[in-house]
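Q: What structure does this chain adopt?
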Amino acid sequence: MNSLFPWLLFLQLVAMAAALEPLRPGFYSETCPPAEFIVRHVMKKALIREPRSVASVMRLQFHDCFVNGCDGSVLLDDTPEMLGEKLALSNINSLRSFEVVDQVKEALEAACPGIVSCADILVLAARDAVALSGGPDWEVRLGRKDSLTASQEDSDNIMPSPRANATSLINLFSQFNLSIKDLVALSGSHSIGEARCFSIMFRLYNQSGSGKPDPAIEPGFREKLDHLCPLGVDENVTGPLDATPVVFDNQYFRDLVAGKGFLNSDQTLFTSPRTRPYVRLFSKDQDQFFKAFVEGMLKMGDLQIEQPGEIRINCRVANSGTVDGLMEC
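A:
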């Protein structure tokens, strides 16, 4: 990762923020009153069909907002002229459930054509994924535009690896004006969902090039992971990120305290003295976790840069210069 790139991007985010139309709750109250109901209805159906899918949709907001702000760029398919973000190192064979976003967009277009942006859909759907899984509910700020393009290179320069340690994560988040508390709370998004064996093989068999497993893994849990992800396994096999992978709660933090974090980038939050106090706090006080998580999601959702924008008709494809669809920021 280019360590300078996120800092330069944050400076751009700060410099341009004042020029953008302010985000606000109830943005669609007059132009598309049922918008938030429609998003939640589709997300509820997705949860019933495949519980993991809502966690996957929530993850899309993280991967969208950190790369040039919350602009729906992560949803764009590649074109002959553009390498988008879906095949970036942290996204390829990992990000999923784009079809749920398609279903939300289709329902919104049927009710209110050309009104609700794909970027706002991601923010609404992430909130609904948490609420429908037993976590907190909150009022979101809306009014984003969709980008006209995406950049695989920008994503590769910014998004952290599952191997990341606490120090690198702290540095990354700070460049987006997100605190250590925000980092730990937002990592609690791993309270729901699953991850691939690909992301932990080095932890199990060659941590830091040692040829040995990560000593931070609790021995009994390591046995379970060895069984799930033996050498030679299809590395797309998945395992739960915490002990209650379909319920949004503070079990994730209790697991970290017990040495049962699935990813290195999770367990490092407990092994590092800078992040450990928040892990302990959230493991003991779910209300504090929920409050901090909502605060972090709102801050992350405010990340924007000034750029040409539109309301896409199809979240996977820019409107290709359609005059009526293009609305400059």
